[in-house]
Amino acid sequence: MAKKAAKKKLRVTLVRSTIGYNKRQKATVRALGLRRINHTVEHVDSPALRGMLNKVSHLINVEE
Question: In what order do the strands lie in the sheet with 60-63?
Fold first, then answer.
């Protein structure tokens, strides 16, 4: 059996508050698993995740 290639992980950190932004952006941040400023989570890279990150790119930092 061949080993599967390791999935690329992205580290996402919330750096700005969602106060003053619309409900959809707040919901996207919550769906990413981010709860408070400087909270960091890791996700496996996917096209759906990239779309979410693109929508709230002004609120987060992303590291590969």
Answer: 40-44, 9-14, 60-63
